[in-house]
């Protein structure tokens, strides 16, 4: 055994062991944190696996090749208010430290403990080794990395803090990502006076990293596969979808706007789930009747229309905005003079009915229609 060595700072997972006045344990908790919430009976939690290994600050690297058997193990985990979090699996009293075959016990960390992306916990444990009693306590901080740039998100899904790299036979102090996810969101370019069934789509790809640290541990490998599975515990939840704010929406649409999240393998579509039609009298779009798809109202001249979508992605809430192309920036006048190349000069006078129908026509239709407004 060695005396204290300077401890380096961890990345996504930080474990700080507090030195006690008694027989300080030569062990420290290793952590596997799955940064994907699981929900059962409306209770959402993150899964955290814990194993005990030799404290890298207290032992030489060659010690990790040995097997240690301890007895009367008592491990406790607490939230930031020092309320105990009960284990979801049995913690055996007689425990073996073996880096070729690690033993994990499981905790379910309530998602409510996550504050500003971080989870703060504390622990305490005691055990016996060669008839000598040892104890230890400390803190665990979980702060998984995620980056959002425009409509692209990168997130660490599973992080692993181990103190021994068995392949390279070196000690470690920092955690590593063993499963990450990359998400790309693409909006359909919406514009007024059109019907749409699809608003956006998102692709998700996974990357397994630092697999040599796992050493083919079946427990960790199963967690990787479960985190990638979208069937039971979905990666994405569509929490809200709207066009403009509530008041302006009611001025131009009548009914409830419903959007649906549809999965096709690792492609996720945000689709309109309903019918719609434009009421020419009220100038409102009536929802849930008419044609399949959402008709974007062209008559709100003074409003920049915007699609707003809120997604829960692996437990993190993100809001995305996409501008809907409209004609509210255009300025119309009653008299226009057209100079038509290789022809006469015509003067046109347009009334209100012309401007009301103009945005509903394409270029060829406008050319035909303006002939009715020739003066000379």
Overview of this protein structure:
This protein is mainly beta and 376 residues long. 9% of the residues lie in helices and 47% in strands. The chain has helices spanning 218-228, 246-252, 352-358, 363-369, and strands at residues 13-18, 27-40, 43-54, 68-78, 95-97, 105-110, 119-129, 132-142, 146-149, 152-161, 164-165, 170-171, 176-187, 195-196, 198-208, 236-243, 253-254, 259-264, 267-272, 275-279, 284-287, 291-292, 294-295, 306-313, 316-323, 335-339, 345-349. Strands 2, 3, 6, 9, 10, 13, 15, 18 and 19 form a nine-stranded antiparallel sheet that branches. It has a five-stranded antiparallel sheet with strand order 1-8-7-4-5, with no helix packed on it. Strands 17-21-20-22 form a four-stranded mixed sheet. Strand 11 and strand 12 form a beta hairpin. The chain is elongated. Mean pLDDT is 87; it is low at 1-10 and 331-343.
């Amino acid at each position: 055994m060695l005396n204290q060595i300077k401890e380096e700072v961890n990345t996504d997972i930080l474990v700080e062991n507090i030195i006690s006045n008694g027989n300080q344990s030569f062990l420290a908790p290793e952590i596997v944190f799955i940064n994907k919430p699981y929900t059962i009976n409306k209770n959402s939690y993150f899964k955290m696996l814990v194993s005990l290994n030799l404290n890298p600050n207290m032992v030489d690297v060659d010690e990790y090749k040995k097997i240690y058997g301890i007895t009367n193990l008592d491990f406790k985990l607490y939230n930031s208010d020092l309320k105990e979090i009960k284990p979801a699996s049995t913690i055996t009293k007689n425990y073996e430290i073996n880096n070729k075959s690690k033993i994990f016990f499981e905790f379910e960390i309530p998602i409510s403990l996550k504050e500003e992306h971080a989870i703060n916990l504390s622990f305490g444990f005691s055990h016996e080794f060669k008839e000598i009693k040892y104890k230890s306590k400390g803190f665990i901080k979980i702060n998984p990395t995620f980056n959002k740039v425009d409509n692209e998100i990168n997130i660490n899904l599973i992080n692993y803090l181990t103190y021994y790299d068995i392949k390279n036979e070196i000690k470690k102090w920092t955690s590593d990502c063993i499963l990450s996810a990359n998400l790309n969101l693409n909006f359909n370019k919406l514009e007024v006076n059109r019907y749409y069934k699809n608003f956006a789509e998102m692709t998700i790809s996974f990357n397994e990293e630092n697999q040599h640290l796992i050493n083919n541990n079946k427990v960790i490998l199963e967690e990787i596969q479960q985190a990638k599975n979208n069937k039971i515990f979905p990666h994405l939840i569509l929490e809200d979808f709207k066009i403009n704010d509530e008041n302006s929406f009611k001025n131009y649409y009548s009914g409830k706007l419903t959007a649906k999240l549809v999965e096709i393998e690792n492609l996720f579509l945000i689709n309109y789930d309903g019918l719609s039609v434009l009421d020419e009298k009220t100038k409102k779009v009536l929802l849930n009747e008419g044609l399949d798809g959402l008709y974007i109202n062209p008559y709100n001249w003074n409003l920049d229309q915007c699609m707003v979508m809120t997604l829960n992605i692996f437990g993190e809430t993100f809001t995305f905005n996409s501008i809907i192309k409209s004609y509210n920036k255009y300025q119309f006048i009653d008299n226009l003079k057209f100079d038509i190349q290789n022809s006469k000069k015509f003067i046109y006078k347009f009334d209100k009915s012309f401007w009301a129908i103009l945005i509903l026509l394409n270029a060829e239709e406008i050319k035909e229609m303006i002939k009715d407004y020739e003066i000379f």
